[in-house]
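Aggregate trends can hide what the representation actually does to any particular protein. The sequence in question and its structure tokens are set out directly beneath this paragraph.
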Amino acid sequence: MPDGTRRSRVQRFQWLGADVVEHTQDGQAWMPHWHTEWSIGAVVQGTCWCTVGGQPWRPTQGDLMAIAPGEVHTGMLASGAEAGDGGPGVRVLMVHVCAQTLLSLGLPLPRESTVVHAPALAAQADTRSGPLDLPSWLGAATACLGAVARQPAAQAHTPVPSAAERALLVHIGHAVQAGEYQVQALARQCGVSRARIHQIARKWIGMAPSDYLRIARLHQARSLLASAEPLASVAVACGFADQAHFTRWFRRVFGYTPGDWAQALHSDATSATMGA
């Protein structure tokens, strides 16, 4: 069982527009969720058991991974020994950074969610061995990940939404961005039945609409916390029963608590490097 006293460590690089999270807890697991930014990561040690866009992944030590914005994924961490790889411990570094930041730095965007084996770059992400130069590492990692193209055979068999389904997905996205977090009201805004919202969400988003909207509320909570709103007020504003309920869901999705996030914002990193 995971040690409940340990959490992921998060650092906020405000000027870079990036969050850097280090996950080191054996058995830590995430419910289905997504991020609004690109997630660029490295498995420094151990193994991740994941599903990304409904596809099973198993990134292991030496792998880099990119998860596209909005791509629903799950995950669980295991030490090398527990995963049958013989190695001790688990350590995964994830950088959450928006596409605009990558482009403004002149860095290439990955083509899609993908995994590539790059032991030297993954080893550089181990902050125990010294400070990590984030812009330099991100540039090398995104270039490496961007060089991996989807196989034509897989692409040919990848289902795509119809024009009507795409239009509805866009409408759903706009309604959620405008602050609509109730399934029935979302269906009403989109001019379809609740059953249709469920069908589209399950088929093309990969989760129930209630779960999708809960994650949207948690992203809203992150934004409110960035505006220095009190935790209790944020919990109420985002539709959670109480602060404990809010904290539990926040950690299930992000790996750290709202308090950890608020502290990271307060102690915004001023350098492009991070250390142990």
